[in-house]
Write a structure and sequence with these properties.
heterodimer; A: 100 residues; alpha+beta; B: 289 residues; Alpha-Beta Plaits; globular
Amino acid sequence: MEKIDLRIKIPEVTWGRKMPRITIDQEKCTVPFLCKRCLQICPMAVFLVERVMAKEERLKEMDPRVPGNYVLSARRRDKCTVCNKCLEVCPVDAIKIEET
Amino acid sequence: MCYLCEEFGDPNIGGGIWYLNPKNYARNMYKVRLPGEGFKGADAGSETGDVFEEGLQITDAIINAIEEGDVAGFIELKKRQLARIGKVAGEEGQVVPLKEAERVIDICGPVGIMSCACRKLVRADDPRNEHEYSCMGNGVGMFKWERWPERYKGGVKFLSPEDAKEWVRKMDQKGFVHCLMLFERPYIGGMCQCDYPDCFLIRNVVDFGGGTGLLKSHFVASVDYDECSGCGVCAQRCEFGALKFEATTQKANIDQFKCFGCGLCETACPRKAIKLLDRTSLPALVEVW
């Protein structure tokens, strides 16, 4: 029998639960690092602000004021409760949440 | 036995505890690296490109597997994560309680503090004020400036061991968990001050059931019911959902299987009713890391 890796644990989640699909309009949301309203209001910390960079520029500091240097993503949609607080605070209506 | 101790502990030093072995704060740093062997410093760091991107892609895939109810696929992804740890900076580490953190500071110099990369990503929190720095870097890697992201250049405050201990006590009071971080095995490059949900490692462990490289500490918290007055101060400190106020007994209750042994409840208790026990003193917990 294959030896069980004790480090692997199965989390207590609802397997097969449909999760919301969150899309962010990158044309509207251009400086998320400066705005940060959704990032800070989300009770479940669903959003991430990520850097966009070429491989050779990875050590460079990116100016948050330059549109496109940082992009908003909703990486942890498994935690989204569809409370819609982010929609209320978004000044440019860039976030869309679809229940599935 | 903790697998990091098995691999990197020395039975003659610090009782075999891997992080009390000074070798692990310097080893590998000055060796000649063969092509394709491990990650270079410039590839390391949680906000430095494709290495980090791959970690996020695995997280995406894990979420999809949960949505599809695909447990077998989930286990395969966990194996992929495990194959990554040890090669990627900041993806493996261990929780240490305050007392152990202070012991680490005694042997890990030099010590510098800086802003936290996780909080920057999760809450767009990027303090430029050194009084808010919440990450600690240590060891000879602190001198490899050419491999550091630009934002840290000039943004690191070096501390004496005494000041570093003062700082870590302050972070403990605030309610942060102390996590030792491996920056390419077995080099211990830092000690992060983490909380849920802002820290990636804690979040992966709590949400996705461990296996991603944050080990529990060598200790487990235990309540002395004779001393506990049920004041509830500790209940707001647990970052791992292990401690709650038990209505029946009107005292604190700790799920020792969930406890990470960070000791935040111990340092908060006004009556010293919570003690940290050696994990090995509880036979059923010896394999629970």
